[in-house]
Known about the structure:
heterodimer; A: alpha+beta; Gyrase A, domain 2; Cyclophilin; four-stranded antiparallel sheet; 6 helices; elongated; B: alpha+beta; 2 domains
Amino acid sequence: MNTETNNIRVEIAGENALIIYFGDKTDPRVSSQVQQAVTILETELNGKLIDMVPSYASLLVIYDQLATDHLEVRRCIREVLSKLDDNEGSEGNLVILPAYYSTESGPDLEALAQRADLSIEEVIKIHSEMEYRVYAIGFAPGFAYLGEVDARIAAPRLATPRTKVPRGAIAIADRQTAVYPAVSPGGWNLIGLCPTRMFDPKAEPTMPVQVGDRVRFNPISREEFFAQGGELGEIR
Amino acid sequence: MSGFKVVQPGLMTLIQDAGRFGHHRIGLTTGGPLDALAFKWANRLVDNPVNTTALEISFGGLVLLAETDAQIVLAGAQMPLKINGVEQDRWHAHRIKAGDKIEVGFSAQGARAYLAVSGGFQVEHSFSSSATVTREGIGGFTGEKLKQGDYLNCTPPVQHKGYRLPETHRPDYSDNVTLRVIPGYQQQAFSDYQKRLFFSSEYKVTDRADRMGYRLAGPEVKPSLDGILSEGICHGAIQIPADGQPIVLLNDRQTIGGYPKIGSMIALDTARMAQMLPGSRISFDEISIDDAHNLHCLAHIRFNNTEPEPVD
């Protein structure tokens, strides 16, 4: 094991949950280790797990107290950690998401460009040229945190969150970007709309991405957006 | 079609089973009963498997019209139960007939009661559960609380046993209790002084207390960290936002979040807390994960070995 894996810590989260900290910052190598641990623990703790929550640099492991205990789970985690490999890994699928960037579909695009001292076209180019990684899914069903956004177009959350952000809104907060899976309140900067459903309870799979996947946005025209079933939705 | 017509939905009545598990990876929370013990008793007293779909009634005000013969039971908070205008015992199965009117009044003590029917309510599952999570719009009837005019389908078996739980075994939902917390997560970011303050102070349940979390008010607790990289949040986790006022996260919590956490309340005690109304006073006791594990297993054994009495 190298020094990085030696820095992995296991802490108590709750009466039936331990949390593994793989690092303390957003890093594709750390995220890849989280993914590997999910896959191995799923097999090793088969029948004893209730759920797991992978995130940027941590993994919450929730177990069934009537089937196991924190001592056994800790031992199992230690064994798993010794098996992780340190490769950056390209294990995730590449998912292309169509993006209709415009001031019509992205009401914060202009302000974001001004703030960054860039043209709108440059912001679109920078956002769509980057390959993002799905670091975490949470906040709401299907809400995937993608990172990291180029520092030039990073933008803080809005001072006053909107009460209504439309489904499909492509947004930026700090160095993260995301597509809103459903109409919801939200404080991220809206720069466009994606016609792909990010969460559909009736579809199989319910989400086009999972943690560890890679995502790239492909700019499309207004006509293509509507042709692919996109809707502008209401913004308040 | 047979079942129950919702004449009055009450303040917040939700269709719940034990909860939705194994879907945190797509951002789905667990839902399920806030007071799991009362929920399990409700099912057991009408001889159902303990995970059967029932109703969680918050604060009261539910009126149903039966269009089927069945056995029903109300367990949990002290909400007066009337069948055709006559007050009936709670924690006690009752035979009802088609045409009977069932009224659940407002609570005298406690906040959540569970109404179960023999054979259970038939509700379509969404992600392997009927549990309603209104924030997600998932479970129950289109993810919403019960509305006037909703119809609760069920086909109760003709022969069905009913039971009552003797008074000595019924939980007490009085206020002013000490709830047990396991230090965990970012506990090291809280100084000894801050931890002592947290564990020796009294907090009040505020009116911002719902199925997502209970916001408490009391002495400010300050960690040495402002925020953390977003991470998984378990049931009972106690998050401390910038204002230093603890929030105990419950069944409908977000699955990940970026506030520092001092530890987690055990489920036996989140169930007690969820029975409290705004203004109730609570304090915390620190316990180890070993003690918490033993308490959980003992509670399970106690439930399985407590024999309810058969009725009629």
